[in-house]
Structure formats: structure tokens, C-alpha cells
Design a protein that fits this description.
Mean pLDDT of chain A: 84
CATH superfamily of the largest domain in chain B: RNA polymerase sigma factor, region 2, helix turn helix motif
Distance between the termini of chain B: 43 Å
CATH architecture of the largest domain in chain B: Orthogonal Bundle
CATH class of chain A: Mainly Beta
CATH class of the largest domain in chain B: Mainly Alpha
Oligomer: heterodimer
Number of domains of chain B: 2
Strand content of chain A: 15-25%
Number of strands of chain B: 0
Number of helices of chain B: 10
Number of domains of chain A: 1
Low-confidence stretches of chain A: none
Helix content of chain A: 25-40%
Mean pLDDT of chain B: 84
Order of helices and strands of chain A: HHHHHEEEEEEEEEEEH
Structural class of chain B: mainly alpha
Number of strands of chain A: 11
Radius of gyration of chain A: 20 Å
CATH architecture of chain A: Sandwich
Low-confidence stretches of chain B: 1-17
Number of helices of chain A: 6
Largest sheet of chain B: none
Radius of gyration of chain B: 19 Å
Shape of chain A: globular
Structural class of chain A: alpha+beta
CATH topology of the largest domain in chain B: Rna Polymerase Sigma Factor, Chain: A
Largest sheet of chain A: 6 strands, antiparallel
Helix content of chain B: over 70%
Strand content of chain B: under 5%
Chain lengths: 219, 197
């Protein structure tokens, strides 16, 4: 896999310090599983965070018992043995696979508008105000309605590719977009483009027709 | 709670007798070394508690999270691999995950090398982690080159674990500026590190 578009440092840092909405962290962790370069950036950020911790001045007295716990240590061979949860391959990395009922090939797509279908994925914090997580399938040549976002939108390409004002995005790539970015992706090969999309807040569509669509589409 | 004098004394003691976290972790793993565990405990627990309380965690929960962290450090010591991360980073990630698990409904999402879809690091990336001790000095030097407006955001993000939105409200600057300063800061840090390796 030749990944050209990576996760922005601002998003990675929010992943490292634990302040990302859950929807967005699913996409980040899924990309990290296939992207050594982004994992290296995460490792650097964790090194920095650890320096802030170990070099800080302690200001509180600890009540907890400093003696070693009287419990068995984990055996590395058992603890790192491949877990049985990977026996059903769903064609995508965890933690996305954990949220899909079936293999990516067998997703029961729901049609939104001609050429575009979706499949919403559930997250533990299911409040729509916290954003949504969904799979989106764009048929070849179909333009998505042009839209912007009231928060952050992060997309990972799982199959195929698309092209928009920002460039060409292929399997494994990430489009990490802030609000105020307007874009109109078009699947640019003869295959469906399947993406994983997370938002931190609902999208806003431009144009009269697109605005009519929004309550329907809900993305 | 410690008085100011206690804190200062504490720090001077630590400075006079620096401990090697990596070696102590290995001693915990290979021989269940009680002394090594206590050294790690005294080096980490008070700092972790301070870290958590600065972030607004109430004291009883901060104690729970640090106990959970130290329990995992003991339990998982044999999984520590010094070629992949330094001991301080390894302990930090355990602590951060323990904190997130304590506050969220769901456990923290992390990529898993056992996942069949996982793409491992190329050999070159693996070798770059050989000079670990050196590197933390290099990281400090790289951070020291940041302009103060970027440094402040990095500090608040890591030490206080604030979100971009919270930082933007606290500093009275637009969210986009917070994000672009973070990007500039890491671009610069990576550039500095490239120069020394």
C-alpha cells in the first residue's frame, strides 16, 4: 500500500492526549493499523508526553501502597498470542472490523441518492451531537453533493479512489478536513469507492437542493 | 497534600539519585524485583497523581488511576520491549489508557499488531529506535527550539491534556490557529530530529 495522505499532526495529538471524539478515533486507529509512518509520529508524540510526565515536579503525596502487588505477572507468550477475535476476517483492520456486523463485501448498503449508499456504524457514545461514523459507497463517476462541515470530518479510503479539489485519494489514504473546507469528491475509477467517514458534528451542504437533502442524508 | 518544602526536598532527592526506569522495568520482569518496583513507584506515582490532578481529576479517582497504572506496570512488565519504546513512554501510555478507560464507556482504540490487516513497520523504521537514551535529549533540544506560542500549546496539550477547542477558548485564539501551531510545531520538531540522527 502506498499511502500519500496522512493524518494531520493536530488530529494525531488529540488522539495521543485522549481528547478526540470516539467517531474520529475509530478512523485514526484504523489508519494507524496500516500506516507505519503515522505510527512513528504517534510514538514521537508519546515520547514527548512521557517526558512531560517524568520530568514534572510532583506536588502531591501518594496514599497508595508502594509495595509490589501480590499477583501473577502476565506471560508474554500467552498475552501476545494471536487472539481468537481475528478468526473472522472482515477485510478491514480493527477497530473498524469490531464495529461491522459482516465482511466489507457483504455490507447491506442503504441507498441515499442515486450512486451513493451508506451504512451507519454505531459507537458507544451514540449521541448525534458527538458526530457520526459511517461507511459510504460512491459509484464510479458520481459526484457527492458539495459540502462543508461544522466540525471536523475525517475520511479513510477502504477501496477504490476518489478525486476532489484537494487531490486524489486512494486506498489507505486519509482526508483530514477542518470546517470551512468545501469539497466535492468524485469516484474516479471504474470501481466503487468505499470510505469510512467520521464527523465530529453534522455536515452542512451548499446549494438549495443539497440543503434539502441534508435532513434526509443526515451526514 | 505535600507542602512546598516537601515537594522541593522530594525533587532534590530524585535529582541526586537518578533512577534508570528501563533497567528497573527489566528487573521487575526478570526477577519480580521488589526494590525496582518501589523505585519505579516513587518515581512515577507522585508525578502521575500531580499530572491527573492538574487535569482536573478528583483526588480519590487520581489515586485509583495511579493504582491501576502501577498494577498494570507490574503485571505487564514482561511485555515491555525496550527496543520499541522507552520505559517512560511505555508507562505513560499505560497511565493514559487507564485514565481514558476510567472516564469513557469504551476502552481506548489502539492498532493491534496481531490484526491480520495490520501492516508492520519496515525494517528501516525499526532500526531508528536503537539510540533511545540519546533520543530523549534530542527531543528536549528540538522542543526547546520552538517559539513560545507553539511551545505553550504543546505543553498544555500534553501536560494538561486539553482539547484543541479548550485551548482555543483558554488562549482566546481561533481553533484553526491552535491546529496550525500544532502542525508547525511538529514539523519543526521532526526537522530538528532529522538533523541530529
Amino acid at each position: 500500500m502506498n499511502i500519500q495522505h496522512h493524518i494531520g499532526d493536530d488530529t494525531l495529538m488529540a488522539y495521543v492526549n485522549g481528547t478526540l471524539p470516539e467517531t474520529i478515533s475509530v478512523v485514526v486507529a484504523t489508519h494507524l493499523a496500516i500506516c507505519p509512518e503515522c505510527r512513528k509520529n504517534v510514538a514521537l508524540m508519546e515520547d514527548i508526553a512521557a517526558l512531560y510526565l517524568v520530568e514534572s515536579e510532583p506536588a502531591y503525596h501518594v496514599d497508595a501502597d508502594p509495595t509490589a502487588p501480590d499477583i501473577q505477572q502476565l506471560d508474554p507468550e500467552i498475552a501476545t498470542a494471536a487472539s481468537t477475535k481475528y478468526q473472522t476476517d472482515k477485510g478491514v483492520p480493527n477497530p473498524l472490523a469490531d464495529r461491522m456486523p459482516v465482511h466489507l463485501e457483504d455490507i447491506p448498503w442503504k441507498k441515499l441518492i442515486p450512486g451513493i449508499s451508506h451504512y451507519p456504524l454505531s459507537v458507544a457514545d451514540g449521541s448525534r451531537k458527538k458526530g457520526v461514523l459511517r461507511l459510504l459507497k460512491i459509484a464510479p463517476g458520481t459526484p457527492m453533493p458539495e459540502h462543508s462541515h461544522s466540525g471536523q470530518e475525517i475520511t479513510m479510503i477502504l477501496r477504490g479512489s476518489y478525486i476532489d479539489d484537494l487531490g486524489r485519494f486512494q486506498t489507505g489514504d486519509i482526508a483530514d478536513l477542518d470546517d470551512e473546507v468545501w469539497h466535492q469528491p468524485v469516484a474516479d475509477t471504474d470501481k466503487d469507492c468505499i470510505c469510512l467517514i467520521a464527523t465530529s458534528a453534522p455536515l452542512k451542504f451548499s446549494g438549495f437542493f443539497s440543503r434539502l437533502l441534508q435532513p434526509l442524508v443526515g451526514i | 497534600m505535600a507542602t512546598g518544602d516537601d515537594v522541593r526536598r522530594d525533587v532534590t532527592e530524585k535529582a541526586a539519585k537518578p533512577i534508570d526506569l528501563d533497567q528497573d522495568l527489566i528487573a521487575i520482569a526478570t526477577s519480580q524485583d521488589q526494590g525496582a518496583y518501589q523505585r519505579v513507584f516513587h518515581a512515577i506515582a507522585p508525578r502521575l497523581k500531580t499530572f491527573l490532578m492538574v487535569q482536573g481529576t478528583i483526588e480519590s479517582i487520581a489515586e485509583e488511576i495511579l493504582q491501576e497504572t502501577m498494577l498494570k506496570v507490574w503485571q505487564k512488565a514482561r511485555l515491555f520491549d525496550g527496543s520499541k519504546a522507552s520505559a517512560s513512554t511505555w508507562i505513560y501510555t499505560i497511565a493514559r489508557n487507564a485514565k481514558i478507560d476510567r472516564f469513557r464507556k469504551e476502552t481506548r482504540l489502539v492498532p493491534d499488531p496481531n490484526d491480520p490487516s495490520y501492516i508492520p513497520d519496515s525494517p528501516e523504521t525499526g532500526e531508528q529506535s536503537v539510540t533511545k537514551k540519546q533520543e530523549s535529549n534530542h527531543i528536549k533540544e528540538a522542543i526547546a527550539t520552538l517559539p513560545s506560542d507553539q511551545l505553550r500549546i504543546i505543553m498544555v496539550s500534553f501536560y494538561e491534556e486539553k482539547s484543541h477547542t479548550e485551548i482555543s477558548e483558554e488562549l482566546g485564539i481561533p481553533l484553526g490557529t491552535v491546529k496550525s501551531r500544532i502542525r508547525l510545531a511538529f514539523g519543526k520538531i521532526r526537522n530538528e530530529l532529522k538533523g541530529v540522527s
